[in-house]
Amino acid sequence: MLAPKQNQNSPLENIFSPRSPLDFLGFAVVGVIINLLSGADPLGFLGVGVLFIYWLWLDRRRVKKLSQRLRFVVDKEPPKGAKGLILLLSPYSPRQESLRDEKQLKPLVEHIINTPIEKLQLADFQNIDLFNSNLFPQIKAVEYHIEKGNLRDVWLISSQSYDQVKGSEITAQILLHYLSFQYGQRLEVHSQGFCVEDWNYKKLWDLADKIFRESDYKDEAVVADITGGTKMMTMALAMACIPPKRRMQYMDAQRDWQGNPLPVGEINPIGIEVAPIIHGNE
Question: Which residues are 271's β-sheet partners?
Fold first, then answer.
């Protein structure tokens, strides 16, 4: 579980803005002192004024700190190269109309999955319209971090099929075989044990958090790509990136009404930094 943010206010500030039983006790004591000063001695009014000025100073100081925290600019910038990359996957969706027929697509996909990596050819992936499919953003995400020279591990998080809902287990197999074909031993692709129900945001949060905690890299060396998956999966992965130094990215591209990237224009990663918003700049 995430630890709550610690209260960074000074003890005196907490007395004037009580948030706990001890703070309230201090607030009550100050109130009694004010009554005694103002009732027993004209100089008590001076004491009240001093306390008022101090309280006003604390309030303006708090407002200034808050404004400094919120004073940041969002720019469209690519992320720094990562050593680890987490990808969310949706059910496979090629653009080619004939391949939307499961009877046409299934044998082509099975051929890729059942063929040893060293015997696969580029044409096998072209036959399933891979480079015009909804996997293209993930392929470009891997390509971007490979070109940065650091990427070593890729985790593929897919969704389980249930009832009449189609999952993305096959999508993970397609991408795993393509990345192994394209990059060989340069990449370690992890897919076993990374399949969850698309609605189970708690399980996906735990899974992503485990990747960050148990990988061989520091948090800032791993990037979570929130482009694919369902909206619930995206939210869960974003939740796992709330702790400081954890990074996200989104593959920015022109898309059709179904959310699939158009086969025109560029597709580039955009870094997402939430630490300045949630944790401030300290």
Answer: 249
Q: Where in the chain is the domain with CATH 3.40.50?
A: 84-278
Distance CA 79, CA 93 (A): 27
pLDDT in tens, 129-169: 999 999 999 999 999 999 998 899 999 999 999 888 899 99
Q: What is the C-alpha separation between 1 and 209, in angstroms, rounded? A: 10
Amino acid at 125: F
Tell me which residue of 158, 162, 226 sits closest to 190, measured CA to CA: 158
- The C-alpha atoms of residue 279 and residue 282 are separated, in whole angstroms, by 7
The proportion of the chain whose per-residue pLDDT surpasses 90, expressed as a percent, equals 56
CATH class of 84-278: alpha beta
Q: How far is CA 187 from CA 35, 85, 152, 180, 252, in A?
A: 72, 11, 5, 7, 24
Q: Over the stretch 251-265, which tens digit does the pLDDT of each residue have?
A: 987 666 556 655 556
- 10-30 pLDDT, tens digit per residue, is 555 555 565 655 665 666 666
Measured from the Cβ of residue 91, the count of other Cβ atoms closer than 10 Å reads 17
